[in-house]
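ESCALATION

Customer reports they have been waiting on this structure for their group meeting. Please prioritize. Original submission:
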Amino acid sequence: AWGDQRFRLYTTDVATGAHTQVDAGDNEISRYAWSPDSRYLAYDVALTNGYMQVRIWDAKAKKSFDVSDPMFDSGFPSWDPKGKYLFYLSDLAFNPFLDRAEARFIVNKATVPVVVALQADGALPFAPRSDLDPKNDEKAVAAKGEKDGKGSTVPAQPEEKVEPIRIDFDGIGGRIVQVPVPPDNYFDLRAVAGKLHFIGVENEGMMPPDGESEEEETAGTLFTYDLEKEKLSTLATEVKEYDVSTNGKVLVYRTDQDFIRVEAGATSAPKAEDAAEAKLQLSGWTVKINPRDEWKQILREAWRLQRDFFYDEKMHGVDWKGVWTQYGSLLDRIASRDDVADLLGEMFGELSVGHTYHWGGDVRRGKPVGTGLLAADLDYDAASGFWKIRKIYAGDYPDPKVSSPLARPDLRVRPGAWLVAIDGRPLKKDEDYLRRLAGRAGQEVELTINDKPALEGARRIVVKPVGGDTMIRYATWIREMRAYVDKVSGGKIGYIHLYDMGGLGLKQFSRDFPPQWEKPGLIIDDRWNHGGFVASMIVAHLDRKVFSVYGTRHGPGRVTEPNRSRGRHMAVLINRQGGSDCETLAQEFKDFMLGPVIGTRTWGGWIGIRGDKPFRDGGGSSQPEWGGWDPKGQAWQIEGHGVDPDVVLDLSPDGFLDGKDEQLDYAIADVAKRLETDPLPLPAPPPIPPRPLVPVK
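Update from on-call: job pushed to the front of the queue and completed.
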């Protein structure tokens, strides 16, 4: 069985090579499993409502049957080895989680494993039973001779004869029962003899405190559920993925560092002396490759992926076969992986589209030596040879990851102080202090600070320099811009800058919007935005209409329904350095008439991408797949042109370097002018009409 890029599922007869289309969905079909007798194929398919549905295809009848309810997102079907049940995961448990700051919710930990009885006369597990009931002989036989459940090795068992499976499809969707485990964020269900395996992950949010990237692989807990004992066990933690052998006897899971082999159905990870034996030793493996052959394959693969997944089958009118003829002719002249990268960029450029990226691979680079930074501006004094601290970038203090090491108030370091020595050694004339901090990021460093450019009377402090200070300087800039807007507008206009339309941008909006919601004016700074996918969530929040203003008899009536909604004069700033989903926000502001868009035209790279098809050397490329058109079906949106501002206004480089931001100043003046005409106050409560009881006549 196999699925293709056109969202179809096929089977192929190995003997004849004949292909049979099983089904087609609204997205790629990639999870499917043959029944033990190889007659039935269970799979999940994407529906038009955005959910997945579990189905079974009968190879004999050449027909598919629905198994799960389309009202619930379901997937990961797996067969009972004995052919009595089908297991899958389904989002059946809805427990809305409320936001701490806003009147909104998410659904989290909604998934449970489900058991389907394949035969109409079959018994479902987990039924109430009396202690006086006789033991189930079949279960006792199945359990006899099984492993001890601790991952120990048992002798190989002879292959069992597979009996034909009977499935009664009439009413199959109703013959289900939930596995009695707490709902969670489960995925990747596998059934083995008498046990279920699945992974559960904690929802850590888009910006977890440990600073892991949004792109990093999800690590979760690998569970084992004993169907007879009705017991859930933790097999291993920090598991990235796992798989079970075809015969259902061996399970291998991957952590960040290792591949671990255990028996399928094990209930705990190997301990002590067994742990070393369970690890797959890959350190001694070598693979012989011919780099030139590999480079040729990578270039061809990249060309083919665009051919198969590019959103326009006509390839923007480009002769894509001719492109391969042109660039393929250079294959024998490639001398390095950097040549491959150069050719990929040139070849993708033929499509005249944004988001055609390529990255990584087996590139050879020297080891970089980082420099510890203080996230501060220092000026050199030629007379003394010491450095004067001009500005300390506090950033988002007290967050140590986004603030200067000098920002701690107990260090008592302020602008105007002098750096005179590092690690007890006085700075020399004409010496850049950063030389002393080479390779010292994250390490304890002793700084000698004085109020004057001299060693006498100096004091010593210990700090940990940071490896990079770009985000610290950026966070400081945001605070300064917000304070500037607040001061110039007399506290009437709020300011929010969005770094991207991903985790950080949503964090910024979630943090900065609630404390400024009462202001009747708001500027959204969308410049230099790195893109993402959350713009429509932000716009929907800003576009809420007030239904009610309410309060108590002693309160001022500052609560609105929906929560923190109000009339608001807004403006958006854009520039040519912003693209992708930040263009969504700008265009939605225009289309929904939420406020003027001010600045320069965005760069016009909007078609959605994935990056899930790596090259053989670990690199990869993206294929623009999801293009969008307007609701009237008249034109494709944004891509190739960008979003035109309502007010075209560029920055003057000299002025911006001196702290003057013409675009921001224009937005402040525009919003302030509208506030003068219509100040949008929240209304005071009207008189409450008397309602005395009137006797019934």
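Sent to customer with the following note: The first helix runs from residue 137 to 143.
Escalation resolved.
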